Structures are given as C-alpha cells and as structure tokens.
Task: inverse folding
C-alpha cells in the first residue's frame, strides 16, 4: 500500500549492532524512561538507518522509539534519549505478522515483493517498523513496515 504520512516526532534510544539483538536492548533502555514519562500509550517503533545486506551487522544503527506530542521536551534524566522527526511524505506500508523473531523475512518480502511491484522505489529518507502489539510474551508481533518512496518515472 502506498500512502501519505504526516510528520511524526519520536523519542529514541540509538543502538548499534546486529538488529536482531540491538533493537531489544534499545527498548530495554527506552521503556522504563517512557513509562516514567507516561508515554506507554504512544506508538512504538524502530527506525533503521542501515541496510543489513550492505552494512556489517556490528555497524548497523537503529533507534528504538516511542511517539511523543509535538513540543515534547526531553529532560535531563533522559540518558541517551533524543528527539527526532520522521519526515512527512509518501510511504510504502506493509502490514504483517512476525513470529519467531523473523523480522528479516518480513523486510525481505516488503522490499523484494511489495515495493518491487509497486511502481515506487525507496528514496532513502525514512525506514521504520511500528509495533501494533506487544509480542514479547507470545513471540508474535503485528507490525507495519514503512519505507519512504518516490514514484518511478515511466520512460516511453
């Protein structure tokens, strides 16, 4: 699905390392802070900065994040937590269920099937996943994957 998304402000904790382990570590740091600031009902997501097929796993950067209201300020107790803005624009979105922590397969399907056949291509601005449930207990996550995209020009 291709859609227009508004600007989103998030509080984030940056992690570096293999996504399958570092993202969880980021949420372990972010969640207590978010709960203390009554942000538990926000949208929880991970922003990805590197393609794990092109970047060494130990160098992959991700931001474990929670949405915040516009104008939210990070206080001095927020060790390592920063604010960032996800840009408005055109996004490809893929709603899926992930089990057994197989997020890599979901992303491969998103890029290699859904985006590849959409008439759009990634524009390099924003790539993130939003968690619609807390699958830590069951191992089953309902997620929406987002990638900022641009229309592919048709050559005639």
Result:
């Amino acid at each position: 699905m291709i859609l227009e998304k508004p600007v989103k402000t998030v509080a984030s904790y940056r992690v570096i390392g293999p996504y399958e382990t570092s993202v969880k570590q980021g949420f372990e740091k972010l969640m207590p802070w978010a709960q203390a600031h009554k942000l538990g009902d926000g949208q929880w997501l991970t922003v990805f900065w590197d393609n794990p097929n092109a970047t060494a796993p130990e160098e992959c950067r991700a931001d474990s994040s929670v949405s915040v209201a516009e104008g939210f300020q990070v206080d001095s107790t927020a060790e390592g937590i920063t604010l960032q803005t996800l840009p408005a624009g055109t996004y490809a979105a893929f709603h899926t269920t992930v089990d057994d922590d197989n997020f890599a397969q979901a992303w491969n399907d998103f890029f290699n099937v859904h985006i590849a056949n959409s008439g759009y291509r990634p524009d390099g601005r924003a790539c993130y996943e939003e968690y619609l449930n807390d699958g830590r207990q069951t191992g089953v996550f309902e997620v929406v994957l987002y990638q900022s995209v641009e229309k592919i020009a048709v050559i005639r």
